[in-house]
Amino acid sequence: MTKKRKLLEKLLSGTRNVQFDDMVNLVGIWFSPFQDQREPHIFEHPSIPELVNLQNKKGQAKPYQVRQFLLLVEQYNLTLEDSGDSK
User: Fold this and answer.
1) ∠ CA 9-74-22 to the nearest 5 degrees?
2) Which of 11, 31, 34, 69 is the one with CA 20 to 30 A from 4?
3) pLDDT per position as a tens digit, 5-52
4) Eight-class DSSP state of 36
5) pTM for this structure?
């Protein structure tokens, strides 16, 4: 099981405490940077109208932004298999 898969499963199980860099890597599976990598980090997806906004708070992703991302994962049925990262 890949690190990204483990992190996604951890988040889906209810954990909201996640390292910022891990969250950026996870979001990057489906979304690409909308702008250069300054604060905040904003990501877009070609077929999803919502943007993903991530801010670094002392090395951690903000919990409300983790929740917003997970809502998009569920709403659009995003899977690791869709991303090409199914290993």
Assistant:
1) 45
2) 34
3) 999 999 989 887 899 999 999 999 999 998 666 778 999 999 999 999
4) -
5) 0.85
**Torsion 71-75-80-83 (CA) sign:** negative
CA distance 66 to 87: 23
- Alpha-carbon distances of 17 from 63, 66, 71, 84, rounded to whole Å: 7, 9, 16, 26
50 CB burial (10 A radius; 0-12, 13-18, 19+): middle
Gap between the Cα atoms of 43 and 24, Å rounded: 9
CB 78 within 8 A of CB 69: no
DSSP 45-80: ETTEEEEEEE-EETTEE-HHHHHHHHHHHHHTT--H
